[in-house]
C-alpha cells in the first residue's frame, strides 16, 4: 500500500489470476481503493483503471469484457487521491508503450453499461416503431434478458461462481449494468 506519490512500475507487480480456484474474484479486494491493470489470457494489457472499490470495478469489467479479463495487477492506496490514482494510471499506460484499446477506442465497452439494443433482430426493429411506449419497453427488456443470458452463459463457461445481478430498471432501456 502507498499513500504517497510513489507508485511501483507496472512491470514490478505480480500477475494475479482474475478468478481464484473457487471461480471468484480475490476476497481481499472489496472496498479497496487503487489502480489496476487488466490483461487478457496472453497477458497483453487491455485496460488500466482506478477505483474507490477495485472489487466492484473488476467484477463490472469481467461482465462487460469476459474474454479480455484473465489477469490483473493492482496497487492499493490508503486514502483516495485522484491525483495519485490518475498519475499512476498514466504512468502505467506510458510504461506499456502504447495506450491499451480499453483506454482508447474500446473505452465505452469497458466503462459504460452494455447496450443490448445492438442485439435487436431485424424483425424486432421493424415492429419497434409501431409499438406503444409500454410495448417498446417490454421489447427492450426482452432483448436485454436475451443478452444477459448470453453473458451469464459465457461467464459460466469461464468458471465464474460469483453472484451476477443486473439492474432491472436499466433493462427497460435496453441496457445492462451490475446492480
In CATH, the architecture of the largest domain is: 3-Layer(aba) Sandwich
Number of domains: 2
- Which class do the helix and strand fractions yield? alpha+beta
CATH class of the largest domain: Alpha Beta
Walk across the major sheet and give the strand order.
1-4-2-3
**Chain-averaged pLDDT:** 93
- Poorly predicted segments: none
What is the beta-strand fraction? Answer: 15-25%
Describe this structure in words.
The structure is a single chain. This protein has a 4-stranded antiparallel β-sheet, with helices on both faces. A two-stranded antiparallel sheet has the order 5-6. Strand 2 (33-39) and strand 3 (45-51) form a beta hairpin. The protein has 2 domains: 10-111, GIY-YIG endonuclease, CATH 3.40.1440; 114-176, no CATH class. With 179 residues, it is an alpha+beta fold. It has helices spanning 54-64, 82-96, 107-111, 122-128, 133-157, 168-171, and strands spanning 16-17, 33-39, 45-51, 71-77, 114-115, 175-176. It contains 6 helices and 6 strands.
